[in-house]
Write a structure and sequence with these properties.
Length: about 700
């Protein structure tokens, strides 16, 4: 239960004065549903209003705050002309200018003969100073409402700075004093203030420096967020390892048969990863391990051999993939090898319905099949296993902790192996997995050629198409990946269909198309025609991003490569260079390129080391965020910026660990304050792992 002291922060945003039915949606998009979300909405800029000259001294182009006496109101003579309110001080006259004015309103806020404090940008018109649409108009008594340095907030359609600023102030007014959850020594050493003070200070920047993620109040808030994150992860992890695990240890007879059926020898890193996994499974605790390896590094075989070890020990094993295509592909790779060891494989996806599905579920429950492969269909509620010993999750960033745990709950002490194809930088790894054990496949299988990567301007599309034609003549298979046009499937699709139609006029029936909106069966057919049939050139949206394996494909064209992220480009490129043939990747870009896009393309040309790409990706994205280009939506961290706060993260990790050693159930004074922290950052789930108190 959320502590009472936080109630005001978790009131709905629309409970704040100034947020009504017309703007509530916009506020939810901008910040989030609760008052606390507005507290986390930190300023991205400032307007300095401390410049307070006499009218005649006011410099054009500067924001000024002036105290004036209101004179005549001048109605415009035509609708195109503005309404003017002539004001003055003892040095001269200043016009306040309003387009589309409502005279009754202006008479109310600017009564003739009264003194008013106005603030806005000074312009000169026909030699006279004026301010059009002043940002602030206040009476002398109210002049304190005009801040000397006004924070500027990121906005969204339908909300002005005035409205957002007011709402944030109202939200801050509801922020309570909270008990201190920081370690006193660390807190003092950092020179931090109490939470509420830090929050107010972060919203009251006095200069540009105060906007930096390194400003003291912002650091404290970021640390709070990171500490909540690390503490929550540590609690989840502790609850998992506390749950009784079991020792799963096979005798190797199935693995030997599968290995004998492999057309290749395992790489050194595959063998090492495998032995780490098997040791972990054989230990009496629960395994929770990450298998990291670049695209094409051979994770599937490692997964299969681990699963066979579970089957040897008499348990069942399941592999869960994020998409239907991937599940089928894993099935195609694994089935022949498993069968060579005499182990039957059951495939279960969303496409299985009715009787077939019911039969499959019965067999799983009865333990008639030991090895299951599937999509999320595998962890639906009615799926039961006779005795699940190992769950392998091919994660590709798509499953959350929650799903991971629901598969785990399908058996007693299930060991879990999570596979990710995108190497994750150390910092990100910490924030999303905590101190999870990891095995890394750093070696590429033998015989792989590096991919020759070039970037070419879209202006040279004609040359590129000629090049594709030559490649096809040489019997090569070509992917043509179409751009993300906005964040919608629809426009992606239109772009892909257009390119498909254009290429068809040249290449006829040798061109195929695959996109996310096709039915699964159509998609499979298109992929199969490309892999083994008459299709040589496959136009695709990013559906091919995840693990599809066509070793004969050796050319990839990525159109509007500048629109893709680095990790995504790397994933895409991983589709080629899988066989022993030399492969090439053409990154088609539309100039002029922004700095970040240019850097991305350069890194892609320079390296295909996934671990380096992952680090660079984070660095670039972090920089983007610093510049305030963070996309709307809900980023994982509201206050911490991993590109800048890496050290705070490491400190938070150690802090969380130490706290739980000293006060495992968070019942001491600091412990109780930390519970508030967990609720503040909406880690309510984690609190459930604690004894109440
Ligand atoms: P990942 O899932 O890591 O992207 P896969 O497991 O799909 O990679 O393997 C990619 C390809 O490499 C597959 O065709 C697989 O059969 C092959 N492969 C795996 N291990 C080796 C190896 N040790 N030597 C040669 N080829 C391998
Ligand atoms: Mg794979």
């Amino acid at each position: 239960m959320r502590p009472e002291v936080l109630y005001s922060l978790f009131a709905p945003v629309e409970s704040l004065p100034g947020i009504g039915p017309r703007t509530v949606k916009a506020f939810q998009t901008l910040a989030g549903p609760h008052v606390v979300d507005l507290c986390w909405h930190l300023p991205s800029g400032i307007i300095d209003r401390s410049y307070a000259p006499k009218v005649m001294e006011a410099q054009p182009g500067r924001v000024a705050t002036l105290t004036v006496t209101v004179g005549e109101h001048q109605q415009p003579r035509s609708r195109r002309q503005p309404y003017r309110v002539r004001c003055h001080d003892d040095s001269g006259t200043l016009d306040l200018v309003f387009f589309h004015a409502r005279p009754d309103y202006l008479h109310r806020i600017l009564p003739i003969g009264e003194t008013r404090v106005v603030s806005g940008k000074i312009e000169y018109f026909h030699g006279w100073p004026q301010i059009s649409h002043p940002d602030h108009i206040a009476s002398v008594e109210e002049q304190d409402t005009i801040q000397g340095v006004e924070p500027v907030y990121p906005l969204t359609a339908g909300l002005t700075l005035k409205v957002v600023g007011k709402a944030v102030r109202a939200a801050l007014a509801q922020a309570p004093e909270l008990p201190e959850w920081q370690d006193f020594g660390f807190w003092r050493q950092q020179g931090w203030t109490a939470w509420r003070e830090a929050l107010l200070a972060a919203h009251a920047p006095q200069g540009e420096d105060d906007l930096s993620a390194l400003a003291t109040p912002r650091q404290r808030l970021a640390y709070d967020e990171l500490l909540a994150n690390q503490l929550a992860l540590a609690l989840v992890r502790r609850s998992q390892t506390r749950m009784k695990g079991r020792a799963v240890e096979g005798d190797g007879h199935l693995r030997d048969q599968a290995i004998a059926a492999l057309p290749f020898a395992l790489t050194g890193s595959q063998r090492k990863a495998l032995s780490e996994i098997l040791d972990d499974m054989a230990a009496p605790h629960r395994m929770l391990r990450l298998l990291q390896g670049d695209v094409g590094s051979g994770k599937t075989v490692v997964a299969l051999l681990s699963m066979l070890a579970a089957v040897e020990a008499g348990c069942q094993a399941a592999l869960m993939a994020p998409t239907e295509i991937l599940a089928r592909q894993h099935d195609a790779t694994i089935r022949p090898l498993a069968e060579a060891a005499g182990v039957e494989v059951l495939l279960l996806t969303g496409r299985d319905k009715g009787k077939g599905r019911a039969r499959a579920l019965e067999r799983l429950k009865a333990g008639e099949v030991k090895l299951a492969i599937g999509t999320h269909a595998l962890f639906q509620q009615d799926v039961e296993f006779q005795d699940l010993g190992l769950a392998v999750i091919d994660e590709q960033h798509r499953f959350g902790v929650h799903q991971r745990m629901s598969l785990q709950s399908k058996g007693r002490g299930v060991d879990v192996l999570v596979m990710t194809a995108t190497p994750i930088p150390r910092t990100l790894m910490l924030t999303s997995y905590g101190d999870m054990e990891a095995s890394r496949l750093t070696e590429k299988p033998a015989g792989r050629q590096p991919v020759d990567t070039r970037s070419i301007s879209l202006d040279r599309l004609g040359d590129v198409v000629d090049g594709v034609a030559r490649a096809i003549e040489q019997g090569r298979k070509v992917y043509w990946v179409c751009p993300l046009v906005e964040e919608s499937d629809k426009s992606d699709l239109a772009a892909a269909e257009e390119r498909f139609a254009a290429l068809k006029t040249r290449f006829g029936a040798r061109v195929g198309l695959v996109h996310g909106r096709m039915k699964a069966a159509e998609k499979d057919r298109a992929m199969a025609d490309f892999k083994e049939g008459d299709i040589d050139l496959l136009v695709a949206t990013t559906v091919i991003e995840v693990g599809v394996d066509v070793p004969s494909a050796t050319v990839m064209v990525i159109e509007h490569a500048e629109r893709f992220g680095l990790a995504q480009l790397h994933q895409l490129r991983g589709r080629i260079g899988r066989g022993s043939e030399r492969s090439s990747c053409l990154l088609l870009y539309q100039g002029p390129l922004g700095e970040t896009a240019r850097a991305r393309l350069r890194i892609m040309r320079e390296t295909d080391d996934g671990f380096r790409i992952a680090e660079e990706d984070m660095r670039l994205r972090g920089a983007g965020e610093l510049l305030g280009t963070r996309q709307s939506g809900f980023p994982e961290f509201r206050l911490a910026d991993l590109a800048v706060h890496g050290e705070l993260l490491a400190a938070a990790r150690d802090d969380a660990k130490l706290v739980l050693e000293r006060d495992p159930e968070l019942q001491g004074e600091r412990g109780r304050a930390l519970r508030v922290l967990l609720y503040l950052f909406e880690r309510d789930q984690a609190v459930r792992f604690l004894r109440s108190g």
